[in-house]
Write the structure tokens for this entry.
Amino acid sequence: MAEMQPYDARKRVKAKDSSGSPWLGIGFGAAIALPFVFMGLWYIGVAVAAITGLLVARGAWANKTWGEVGVTLPGSAVMMGETFVAEMRTVGGESPDGYAVDATLVCREAATYRSGTDKTTAHSKVHLATCTVADRSHDGGVAADLEVSIPRSGPPSMKLGSNNKIEWYIEVQLRAPGVPDISRRFDVRVRPIVFGASQ
Amino acid sequence: MIHIEVLARQFECGDTVIGSCAWAVEKAPRSVRVMLEYYTEGRGDEDRRAVATKNLTATEEGDASFEFKLPTGGPVSYNGDLIRVIWQVRVLCDLPWASDSEETAVITVRAPHDPTVDPDYSPFEPPVA
């Protein structure tokens, strides 16, 4: 009867090493995969370029249709609790059939913080109110009166330093069937005084 | 030990903050200052600004009065989702070769309002320090 030999790992390793270099297989695999990787990257590049081109073309179309959007406020600043009418008017555009004007008053906190070497800004909308819109169409453009009410208890506009601020703005959106929507933002400066208080 | 006494705790923009302070520290300070300042807390990095500063006599013990005018253009005390704005009077003793000694008194700054129109006007309560 043959005597059982103890297992020798060194022998086994030696036997495996003698079967050929593993680098040959890796090189062969890479040579096969590389063209597919390049093709994939090319497809991704084409897709990104196509989407960017479509967005740019859509933006240009919207700008050409609607023209320049402007809002005139009653003064350089308004008070907390004040209700006023802002005039919205487009210049150099058209008034497409079935258009609609939406306006929203927004108060937003913006807080910037550093995380490693990056700077990130977090936003929170603390007030959101739909403005009443009265259409005042004019030849070759869109015009509307926007009734805006700043709440009495809302915060005023505050720039607290380089990291924190509270801002008020009117967001105007123009919509029409078959035409890209357009959205513009107009800053409103709210003074820290409640309407009706002696100044 | 530093003690601050402010005559009122609620103010409106443009009001004058009047008070006094007393200090007694273990060694002669390099400087003693009282300042009216605001700072932010919350998600963003801190913004801090002293709107008025008064340099006091740098002695180991002393007392002084102060009178600071709040800016009319704000900011106001605020407690929001991401940002808190806290106003305070701060007395700072700059001690050589030691940690500075300081004391604060938090105040509330609101927007001016008409009490006959808004009797219960109380928009923002700053956090208790």
The first strand of chain A starts at residue 68 and ends at 72. Chain A touches chain B through 32 residues (CB under 8 Å).
